Amino acid sequence: MNTKNERWILASGSPRREKLLQMLETPFEVIAADVEERAESTEPAAVTEELSRQKAEAVADGISEGIVIGADTVVALDDKILGKPASVEEAKDMLLSLQGRSHMVYTGVTIIKKEAGSSKQNVSTFSEGTRVYIAPVSMQEIERYVATGDPMDKAGAYGIQGVFGRHIKGIEGDYYNVEGLPVHRLYEEMKRMGNIKF
Q1: ∠ at Cα 13 (7, 15), nearest 5°?
Q2: ∠84-90-96 over CA atoms, to 5°?
Q3: What are phi and psi of 155, to 5 degrees?
Q4: What is the rounded distance in angstroms from the CA atom of residue 42 to the CA atom of residue 198?
Q5: Please, what sign has the CA dihedral across residues 43, 93, 138, 88?
Q6: For 102-145, how does the pLDDT look when each residue is reduced to its tens digit (9 = 90+)?
Q7: At 120, is the secondary structure helix, strand, or coil?
Q8: Cα(45)–Cα(127) distance, rounded to whole angstroms?
Q9: Which DSSP letter does residue 171 get?
């Protein structure tokens, strides 16, 4: 679909995002952004947009041409952002607060297109939200899940694509957004920007 053979770069070291981006059927390389993430906004969707842009810009600054895709995902409960747990106890506390309730997962995406020999950049930033419903989960079930180590590198202390998926009662919105990349929205935006042509 990338008929121009443009260079595509995913500005993320997330193996989940790498797998999801493959759905766009265009070869890409991975350059994880080395940036200190700081957002001025406190509103979850806006935070993801800010951080995705910081990541994309950090990688775009180091190339002369190409298309850079940056992304950032947060879990929000009552508009409070739950990041990656810093300890086993924090992971348990997060899961206790999420069980039996619904929450939002937001992913912000920034696309930067740099043309060779031009200082101009074509930039698009957007965010997608998905509501996730978690069934009631016992403390014993939470402790068993935390013992696997799976929650420790995930926002909100869980991954929908892993064993915790058995506790997900339902979702409203894009499933892949919860994994870390809203594939359909990204695909439509890349078409709109002219980055995907048939």
Answers
A1: 100
A2: 105
A3: -60, 135
A4: 40
A5: positive
A6: 999 999 999 999 988 777 789 999 999 999 999 999 999 999 99
A7: coil
A8: 6
A9: E
Q: What is the pLDDT of residues 58-74, one digit of tens each?
A: 999 999 999 999 999 99
The CA-atom distances, in angstroms, between 73 and each of 2, 18, 40, 148, 153 are 26, 14, 16, 22, 12
Kindly report the pTM of this predicted structure: 0.92
Nearest Cα residue to 75 out of 47, 35, 37:
47
Positions marked active-site: 72
Q: Using the 8-state DSSP alphabet, how is residue 87 labeled?
A: S
For the chain, the C-alpha Rg in angstroms (whole number) is 17
Amino acid code (one letter) for 126 = F
Tell me the per-residue pLDDT of 10-57, one tens digit each, with 9 for 90 and over: 999 999 999 999 999 999 999 999 888 888 899 999 999 999 999 999
> What's the CA gap between 143 and 134, in Å, rounded?
16
The token pair at 7 is 């260079």
- Block residue for tokens 């994994």: 179
